[in-house]
Amino acid sequence: MLILGIETATPQAGCAIGGHEGVIGLAQSGKGRRHAENLAPQIQFLCEQTGIELSDRSIVAVDVGPGLFTGMRVGIATAKSLAYGLGVPMIGVPSLDLVAYPVRYSSRLIAATIDARRGEVYYAFYRQVPGGVQRIGDHSIGSPDDLASELLATGEDVLLVGDGALRYRETFDGISKVEMADAGFAHPSAASLVHLAHARGMREQFSRPTEVEPIYLRKPDAEINWVTRDTP
Question: Is 192 found in the same domain as 90?
């Protein structure tokens, strides 16, 4: 089982190839919102460096958000096109799951965050389980103060991870029992995507391309601006 993972939900986008032996190759870029320009060359580079053809893939996995609207659309559209062309199934994995997965060895309650822009963050809570983490409740969006209030309300030791936490660090500094994870864990990783997709693939939790949809927790900025703009 060879998996191509595509992750474009945040400014640091990437792709990875792997399977039961782990991640074979990984390509990442941190060039902001240039996902449409960078993704295809990244995939081509990855194939060349690993010596694996696209036709060898048996699953296409993709980050379905929440995250940057344009980046998510680029990644999901590319993943769907490849899955259709190769005639293989897909696996969609939420971006916050990918943020939480690398810190799965923590015994603390894990709060995964992604910068949602407009003074808000996407976030979700996770607990350690054998082999990974399990999300508790739904994905949420709110102000950093909203998240800080929820952290205080838990009364638990919490590991706070993700670029949303780092951007609004001053809001969370000083909250008792809350530890901030290293900046190296700030973004979802295509490597984590391959690991989680492989586990789901082993359980045959596949989707058809038509079934894979992005997770939107609010309307796109362009739509918000259109609705709220002044009328003549």
Answer: yes
Q: Are residues 106 and 212 in the same domain?
A: no
The predicted model scores a pTM of 0.91
Q: Would you list the DSSP string of the chain? A: --EEEEE-SSSSEEEEEEETTEEEEEEEE--TT-HHHHHHHHHHHHHHHHT--GGG-SEEEEE--SS-HHHHHHHHHHHHHHHHHHT--EEEE-HHHHHHGGGTT--SEEEEEEEEETTEEEEEEEEEETTEEEEEEEEEEE-HHHHHHHHHHH-S-EEEESHHHHHTHHHHTT-TTEEEPPGGGSS--HHHHHHHHHHHHHTT--B-GGG-----SS--HHHHHHHHSPP-
Which of 123, 188, 184 is CA-nearest to residue 151?
123
Question: Is the distance from CB of 101 to CB of 194 less than 8 angstroms?
Answer: no
Q: Is residue 56 part of a domain?
A: yes
Neighbour tally for 105: CB within 10 Å: 8
The model's pLDDT over 35-48, given as tens digits with 9 standing for 90+, comes to 777 898 999 999 99
Same-domain status, 87 and 106: no
Residues 6+ apart with CB under 8 A from 208: 89, 90
- How far apart, in whole angstroms, are the C-alpha atoms of residue 26 and residue 23? 7
Give per-residue pLDDT as tens, 117-164: 999 999 999 999 998 999 999 999 999 999 999 999 999 999 999 999
